[in-house]
Amino acid sequence: MSKISKLFKGGGSAGSKGRGGPSPQEALARLRETEEMLSKKQEYLETRIERELAIARQHGTKNKRAALQALKRKKRYEKQLTQIDGTLSTIEFQREALENSHTNTEVLKNMGYAAQAMRKVHENMDLNKIDDLMQDITEQQDVAQEISDAISNRAAFGDEFDE
Fold it and tell me: Where is the composition biased (Gly residues) (predicted)?
C-alpha cells in the first residue's frame, strides 16, 4: 500500500485496527499533542514578528525597501498566527466535546451496571410475599398497640366502687 493511501485510509495506526476507530483516550492524546505543537508554532511566530518589527525599525527611513519587506513578512506571520488561533479554538472545542462524550458514556455504562445489580437484588423478591409480610407487620403493630394501650390505662382500683 502506498504512503498516500495509508494516509487517507488510516492504514498506519496500529491502535485503531479492528475496532472501527481510535479510543477516546487515543483521540484526546492526539488532540493534546496537536494543541502543544500549535502552541509552539504560535510562540515561534510571535518571536518572528518581534524580529521583523525590529528589522523594520532598524532600517526605518534609511532602507525603505528592507523595512517594507520586513513589515510584509510580519503581516504574513500575523496572518498565520490568526489562523493558528482559530485552529486551536476548534481543537479545544472538539477536545471538550470528546471529553464530555466519554464522560457521558462512562456514566451511562455505570447506570447500566447499577440497573443490573438492582435487577439481581429484586429477582428473589415476590410482590405477593412482600404484601403478605407487610400485612403481618401491620397486624403485629396493631397487637403491640393494643397491649401498650392496655398496660398504660390506669387501673381503676376504687374508682368503680358504688357509694
Answer: 9-21
